[in-house]
Structure formats: C-alpha cells, structure tokens
Amino acid sequence: MKKVIMLLAAITLLTGLIFAHARDYEMSGKTDDYSVVVKLDKNPPVRGTNRITVEVKDAAGKAVTNANVVIHYGMPPMPGMGAMNYRKTTELKGEIYQAALNFSMSGPWYVDVRISRDGSTQTVKLNVDIR
Fold it and tell me: For 89, phi and psi rounded to 5 degrees?
C-alpha cells in the first residue's frame, strides 16, 4: 500500500511539473530595423483574455526599451458580420512589453505589433487561430 501511495504521489508531482512548464504560444516576425517575438500565455490561444508579451530587439540583438508598442488586433469581416478591430497599448516591464488581449470569438485573428521609435513606425503582421 505504501508503494502505491508513493507511486501516485510521484505521478501527481510529475504531472504538476509538466503543466507548470507548459510553453507559451510563440510567434515572431521582422521589420527593417527590429526582430519581434510575441508570446501568448495560452497554448493554443483561446476565446477570452490572453496575456501577450512582446520582445523587441534591434539589428544588433539588443533589447529595445524606449519604443511605444501598440497592438492592433481583430478579425476580418464575415458574411453577416462586420470587421472587428481593437487597439491595446502595452506596458514595459523590464525588457518586455506586456498587455492583455480579449479575443471575443473563435477563428482567425490578425495581430499587428506597431513599434514607434525615433519618429518612425514599423509593423510586424502576425496571424493566430483562436479556439
């Protein structure tokens, strides 16, 4: 009996560790001046609130922390439904820009990351399928 309890405890611990280290949903893209890595905390992304982090690096690979990063996201129009377009500003925490996006329905969504710095704006266009 003691061995069964120890085995169940070990399985429970391993299961917890696996779920604790589940990977974020990750997308990446480039502009003329920046490399961008975008992560959503749900994998796969789902309807409702998903935390997003955006890492912006310059051509030398150095983190860009003096930009204004805004997320434009939405769904294209569908029969009987107009387009959905949303805008979310991010907050810089350390070297990562963060925000929360609310995906109101399942399906294909676009996520445009707009980086404004030194008088110019560059955009990384990404797509995500929400479940």
Answer: -80, 155
User: The domain that contains 69 carries what CATH number?
Assistant: 2.60.40.1930
Q: What is the pTM of this model?
A: 0.81
Cis peptide before 79 (omega within 30 of 0): no
CA 29, CA 20: separation in Å to the nearest integer? 27
| 52 class by beta-carbon count within 10 Å (0-12 exposed, 13-18 middle, 19+ buried) | buried
Q: What is the pLDDT of residue 78?
A: 86
Cα 125 from chain centroid?
13
Quick check: 91 and 3 in contact, CB under 8 A? no
